[in-house]
Amino acid sequence: MDETYIKIKKVWFYLYRAVDSQGNTLEFLLSPTRNTEAATRFFLKALHFSTDGASQAHPVEEQMSQPAAAANPAILTLRVINVDKNAAYPKAVANLKAAGVLPDHVELRQVTYLNNLIEQDHRFIKRLTKPGMGFFSFETAWRTLQGYEMMNMLRKGQIQRVDKGDVKGQAALVARLFGVVA
């Protein structure tokens, strides 16, 4: 898990991103702040995605009141979370463990070089957003970043029934999703 910066209306916002050990994108969140609350919100969103495939649909307080670890056996397979030296991460993980959302056996590792996989994955987003010189609204940025992330997931072969190198299949999928004639 890591965050990178995105410029919106000449103000820097934070794009939180998570990838698994194979480099597959798990989840992403655009936030105006880089603090414990934003980190907690992202952890909850990423945990819900990795356990039941759903994105965050409930407020943080409501999710923290429902222990996900007990209800979902898939979360028990989570062993390690690698993050950078941001001070908000240990606080967020401690809050989630105290609330019973995150199992106690999950280890948080704050080692700079263990994050190289996601740091390299950020290059894809930066390569697309830099030439545009930023976005003009949060809504536009969020929708555009969702498209970038989904196309990146398609390119990585994370979409079921469409192989990584199947360009025709990928084009057909995009055409079906957006109602475009291929």
TrEMBL record:
Pfam families: DDE_Tnp_IS240 (PF13610). Residues 1-50, 80-158 form the DDE domain. InterPro entries: DDE_dom, IS_Transposase. This is DDE domain-containing protein. Signal peptide: none annotated. It comes from Dictyobacter formicarum.
